[in-house]
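hi! just following up on the protien thing from before. the input was this:
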Amino acid sequence: MRLALDGSATTRFQKPPLNPVFTFIVGATVLFNGANTEKFSGGKLASDGALLAGVLTTMPVHDFHMHLEFRTPYMPLARGQGRGNSGVYIQQRYEVQILDSFGLAGANNECGGLYQQTAPDVNMCLPPLAWQTYDIWFTAARFAADGKTKVASARITVLHNGVPIHSQREITAKTGGGKAEGPKDFPINLQDHGNPVTFRNIWLVNGEGHHMVAEIAPLPCPALRRAGWRHRFRYWSAGQ
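and the predicted 3d structure came back as:
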């Protein structure tokens, strides 16, 4: 697939939006720009200045848009889940898988999958050692006043290298070994699975105004339209 091979659909180096379209405009929090790791618990840097996997954000998350860039290592002798394995564990409950899945079918335990729950709509994984992007829009599950009864499941939209792989997807339960669902918010875990996966250019905007993509110029219009997205006033939207 040409988009995956040459990176033409990438959102690499994208900066936080100055005027994000959210219900609550609170601005972007830069979590990591290469300067320090103070926004992460247990943060350590690789020799090239990238952030190593195995960290938690110092703040819990609820509804947000997050941008991050990741790189999987070259592990030619490894196979399956032992090949560039990491993940973005939202609220330590819901994992968007990171894996060297270049050229694979795109299963629910491969790169871009909601781990062991939902496969990505398309496998947009680049080869190992290439920097890749996730743009994630997340709305937390809602619970009744008793704190036990779930009244609405969490929802997620994910762009992988600029292409929608989940559009307002319902997350029906926690994934894998994640924490049990509940009303309490928890941090994001950039999972350490024993492989040297690294991260850079991580920022987050809080707020629920769900699934608006603000001025991402390189996005492939046909791919977005096929996924049911609409364009209006310079914005792509998967919402109503």
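The domain at 2-237 is CATH 2.60.120.560 (Jelly Rolls).
The CA atoms of residues 93 and 177 lie 8 Å apart.
cheers
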